[in-house]
Amino acid sequence: MLMIQGYPPVCQYRPAARAQALVFGALCLLGVSAGAQNLLQNGDFELPAHGSVTNWTVGYLHGGPDDWEIKDHSRGGARRSTTYYGAYFRVVSQKLAHAYFTQTVSNLTAGHTYNFVGHMREDWWKSASDALRDKYLVYIELIGGQGTPLECGDGRSSVVATNDLTESDGSYNADIDPPYTYATYPWRPFYAQQTPDSAGKIEVRLHYNKKAFTTYDKPWISAAAFDDCSLTP
């Protein structure tokens, strides 16, 4: 199982941070080079996320553990096939809920820019013209030294990862709504760049924000998955 954090202080990016996500036209420069060191532990979610190795945990910004049927690595969240694993959220509550998988990378070089790529998808998706963003938001946030300051004023800033109008297999697919930061039904890669905060750390958060009440039949079709995440120098 993924380790479960207690209720952390609410410390989120401001809504304007979404507009500060990287412009998709520049993201072709951020591909991970072959053999680049992945600074994230268990970035493909194949291993159980517990033990002595720094790993993913789950945090809550609204609600708590009982709002989620699944909040762990799962074969249902795998990008390649059900013989693998991915990170998986499936909400059980009809009420508002916001959880995220999180991992913090430490001992980073001050002022250096690190590249992130991660893949994600969501189940309850129709099209870019009817994206259901009033119901729930699935996105990836990197917290560090640049971007929009966090509301809690702890000196850190946020950027949100952006898609480059492609699916995870490399095919072009423009059926995604601006600002290109939220998951769609097809698996897509999302990219970002971040610098370390003053303590030499970058925190990666994989978010699921259920922002509206729903009827009883909607939670089970509203799963979200994340897979193959990397942070490289």
Structure description:
The protein has 233 residues and is an all-beta fold. The chain has a single domain (3-232), classed as Sandwich (Jelly Rolls). Helix content is 0%, strand content 34%. The strands form 2 sheets. The chain has a 7-stranded mixed beta sheet, with no helix packed on it. The chain has a 5-stranded antiparallel beta sheet with strand order 3-4-12-6-10, with no helix packed on it. The radius of gyration is 16 Å and the shape is globular. The model is unreliable at 1-9 and 15-32 (pLDDT under 50).
The appropriate CATH architecture is Sandwich
Structural class: mainly beta
Under CATH at level 1, the class stands as Mainly Beta
Question: Looking at this structure, what is the CATH superfamily?
Answer: Galactose-binding domain-like
| Head-to-tail CA distance between termini | 29 Å
Mean pLDDT: 87
Radius of gyration based on Cα positions: 16 Å
**Secondary-structure element pattern, one letter each:** EEEEEEEEEEEE
- Specify the number of helices: 0
- In percent, how helical is the residue content? under 10%
Give a nutshell description of this structure:
The chain is mainly beta.
Descriptors:
233 residues; mainly beta; five-stranded antiparallel sheet; disordered N terminus
